[in-house]
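Worked example 3 (structure in, sequence out).
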């Protein structure tokens, strides 16, 4: 489809291939006064899911510091963190304190089980679509025989650190993030059952997925992914494929941890597991290392489930996988059709050693946020390009630096394509290219520039 707009060069349809899909994108141009002709919706074949805002690496040291704290709490409270014992409530208060300090909205839900008061800790990260809640959880209680560092300090600490990473990043995901630490899992999923049973159906319907992390640091580790919701499963598999670690489907877990109550009411679930009392096979030892013929965790539900009962590598990898899943699953799911281009062909003079000027492009007809790899093509004719500072301004005014000045760069012209992670920006709106010449005696102008979504 050719679109010509007064004052602009004829435009040919751009055909972009994305992940083997040929999507006929559209090149829409806007001369200064013109507004692009209404754009026929480009084919909306679902291209390969775009990458998402890069999740951070979760520092293993931070996760282990939480484990040390949980270990100390157990030591100071009769040697465990079990339901109904002082060590459990102390664990809740530790985790809650970290979350409150990080800006989460926390609440403690009480329930009674086996004659003792139990506690669920729920933490909401402000923002995101309240009708699309991505929830992550781990049981915080141990058995009475020990400190429960792998079962389930590992899941609790990694989930806590992922939440703190959200705060450090001041993440503004499209979907709402909620985190939970469950009580009395060891008595039969009591806390998570209580939460789900007391969640109104309208609130349940808002949970787009629940991710469960119970035993993710096992000393003789396996890399198991829950095989429940396909999208969640694939998300975890993508992460591990990205770091070259083979995974297996988790087969012993249905009903055996806190994802079960969510699954039982139709909420999509997923999660990670590094193994408990089952025995690692020779084939598993071949691909994962460790010891065949030995349990994944020989201290399962035993007093030796201490800070020494952790494999750092699996804990680190699983912690990073949690962050990846939280970032990925909470990102905007509507991405503009690949290959849609908006362009401004008007020449704009750049004042020599003067004020910055801008050239605008009005983006419309797209949905959701801009992609994490927004292409910004610039064509600036200017002698001694080292004079130039170039920024992209999003519709909300956020500036993304494309090029710094460089006194030594005496070459002419800036004809380049920059990639900007604009996934936190709404796609539609007036985007601007800002150019400033910060040194005298060389001059030039913006010839054209474009955005490719
Ligand atoms: N029931 C969990 C340990 C456990 C055993 N199998 C699985 C499978 C998936 C997650 C957890 C587990 C506990 O003792 O806390
Ligand atoms: Ca890490
Ligand atoms: Zn257990
Ligand atoms: Zn557990």
């Amino acid at each position: 489809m050719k679109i010509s707009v007064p004052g602009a060069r004829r435009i040919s349809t751009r055909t972009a291939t994305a992940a083997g899909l040929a999507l006929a994108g559209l090149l829409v141009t806007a001369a200064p006064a013109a507004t692009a002709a209404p754009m026929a919706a480009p084919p909306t074949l679902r291209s390969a899911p775009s990458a998402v805002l890069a999740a951070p690496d979760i520092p293993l040291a931070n996760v282990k510091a939480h484990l040390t704290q949980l270990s100390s709490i157990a030591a100071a409270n009769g040697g465990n963190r079990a339901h109904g014992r002082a060590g459990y409530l102390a664990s809740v208060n530790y985790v809650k304190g970290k979350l409150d300090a990080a800006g989460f909205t926390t609440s403690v839900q009480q329930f009674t089980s086996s004659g003792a008061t139990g506690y669920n800790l729920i933490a909401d990260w402000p923002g995101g679509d309240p009708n699309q809640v991505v929830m992550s959880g781990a049981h915080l209680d141990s058995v009475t025989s020990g400190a429960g560092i792998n079962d389930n300090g590992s899941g609790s600490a990694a989930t806590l650190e992922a939440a703190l990473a959200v705060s450090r990043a001041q993440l503004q995901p499209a979907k709402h993030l909620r985190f939970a630490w469950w009580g009395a899992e060891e008595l039969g999923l009591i806390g998570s059952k209580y939460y789900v049973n007391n969640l109104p159906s309208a609130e349940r319907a808002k949970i787009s997925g629940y991710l469960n992390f119970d035993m993710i640091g096992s000393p003789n580790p396996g890399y198991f992914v829950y095989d429940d919701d396909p999208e969640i499963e694939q998300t975890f598999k993508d992460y591990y494929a990205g770091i070259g670690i083979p995974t297996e489907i988790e087969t012993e877990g249905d009903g055996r941890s806190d994802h079960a109550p969510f699954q039982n009411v139709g909420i999509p679930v997923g999660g990670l597991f590094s193994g408990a009392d089952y025995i690692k096979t020779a084939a598993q030892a071949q691909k994962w290392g460790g010891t065949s013929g030995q349990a994944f965790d020989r201290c399962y539900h035993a007093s030796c489930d201490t800070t020494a009962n952790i494999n750092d590598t699996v804990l680190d990898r699983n912690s990073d996988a949690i962050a990846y899943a939280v970032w990925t699953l909470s990102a905007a799911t509507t991405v503009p059709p690949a290959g849609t281009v908006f362009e401004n062909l008007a020449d704009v003079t750049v004042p020599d050693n003067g004020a910055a000027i801008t050239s605008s492009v009005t983006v419309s007809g797209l949905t959701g946020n801009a992609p994490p790899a927004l292409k910004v093509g610039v064509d600036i004719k200017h002698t001694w390009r080292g004079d130039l500072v170039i920024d992209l301004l999003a519709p909300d005014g956020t500036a993304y630096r494309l090029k710094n000045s460089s006194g030594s760069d005496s070459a002419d012209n800036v004809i380049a394509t920059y990639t900007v992670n604009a996934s936190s920006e709404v796609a539609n709106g007036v985007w601007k290219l800002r150019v400033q010449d910060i040194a005298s005696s060389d001059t030039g102008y913006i010839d054209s520039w474009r955005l490719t979504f």
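Notes: Residues 60-329 form a domain with the Aminopeptidase fold (CATH 3.40.630.10). The longest strand covers residues 129-139.
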